[in-house]
């Protein structure tokens, strides 16, 4: 799944009706009134903006301007973080031999996932950024945190380290599943 589309989707879910109306108003010159009248969600608006190439994963200044205009500094900072971290078309985001244990961990670790991530050495700041970028989805938060750990460790990211961290957090059942 395209990380940029995922980001746009999370933005669209957070818009109030008033914010969506403001965004539509601000886009009148680029899109046209008639087309905007049929827009009922942020996702539909983003689809049109993507279609007309006003926004893209490597072209976010228009989107940033829109978000600033409706006073959504939280979304502006998420967008900037997204661009800074190079999550756009990141080759490290492709599945590899570490994905299977990561899937097992994500499916079996619950609300205590932050304890595991801390044990793996990910900073509180990175954890907070991930939570802010993906609110209300524990599975995705854990998945992105584990990918962040893997990116941080590079070639030194080993499944044995994951198992050791799981056992250190008293998550022995999950550690056993990963070993299988």
TrEMBL record:
Transmembrane segments: none annotated. It holds the Pfam family DED. GO terms for molecular function: caspase binding; death receptor binding; protein-macromolecule adaptor activity. GO terms for biological process: extrinsic apoptotic signaling pathway; innate immune response; positive regulation of cytokine production; positive regulation of extrinsic apoptotic signaling pathway; positive regulation of innate immune response. It is found in: Cytoplasm. CDD domains: Death_FADD, DED_FADD. One of its GO terms (cellular component) is CD95 death-inducing signaling complex. InterPro entries: DEATH-like_dom_sf, Death_dom, DED_dom, FADD. Residues 3-81 form the DED domain. Its main location: cytoplasm. PROSITE patterns: DEATH_DOMAIN, DED. Residues 98-180 form the Death domain. The keyword Secreted does not apply. Keywords: Apoptosis, Cytoplasm, Immunity, Innate immunity, Phosphoprotein. Apoptotic adapter molecule that recruits caspases CASP8 or CASP10 to the activated FAS/CD95 or TNFRSF1A/TNFR-1 receptors. The resulting aggregate called the death-inducing signaling complex (DISC) performs CASP8 proteolytic activation. Active CASP8 initiates the subsequent cascade of caspases mediating apoptosis. Involved in interferon-mediated antiviral immune response, playing a role in the positive regulation of interferon signaling. PANTHER family: FAS-ASSOCIATED DEATH DOMAIN PROTEIN, FAS-ASSOCIATING DEATH DOMAIN-CONTAINING PROTEIN FADD. Can self-associate. Component of the AIM2 PANoptosome complex, a multiprotein complex that drives inflammatory cell death (PANoptosis). Component of the death-induced signaling complex (DISC) composed of cell surface receptor FAS/CD95 or TNFRSF1A, adapter protein FADD and the CASP8 protease; recruitment of CASP8 to the complex is required for processing of CASP8 into the p18 and p10 subunits. Interacts (via death domain) with FAS (via death domain). This is FAS-associated death domain protein. It comes from Corythaixoides concolor. The lineage of its organism: Eukaryota, Metazoa, Chordata, Craniata, Vertebrata.
């Amino acid at each position: 799944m395209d990380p940029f589309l995922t980001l746009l989707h999370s933005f669209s879910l957070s818009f109030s009706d008033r914010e969506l109306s403001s965004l539509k108003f601000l886009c009148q010159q680029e899109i046209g009134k008639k087309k905007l009248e049929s827009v009922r969600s942020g996702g539909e608006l983003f689809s049109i903006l993507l279609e007309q190439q006003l926004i893209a994963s490597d072209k976010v200044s228009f989107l940033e301007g829109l978000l600033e205009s409706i006073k959504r500094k939280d979304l502006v900072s998420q967008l900037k973080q997204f661009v800074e971290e190079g999550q756009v078309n990141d080759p490290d985001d492709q599945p590899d031999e570490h994905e299977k244990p990561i899937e097992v961990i994500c499916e079996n670790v619950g609300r205590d996932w932050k304890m595991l991530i801390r044990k793996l050495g990910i900073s509180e700041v990175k954890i907070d950024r991930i939570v802010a970028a993906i609110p209300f989805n524990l599975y995705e938060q854990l998945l992105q945190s584990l990918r962040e750990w893997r990116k941080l460790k590079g070639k030194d990211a080993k499944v044995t380290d994951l198992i050791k961290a799981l056992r250190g957090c008293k998550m022995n059942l999950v550690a056993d599943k990963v070993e299988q």
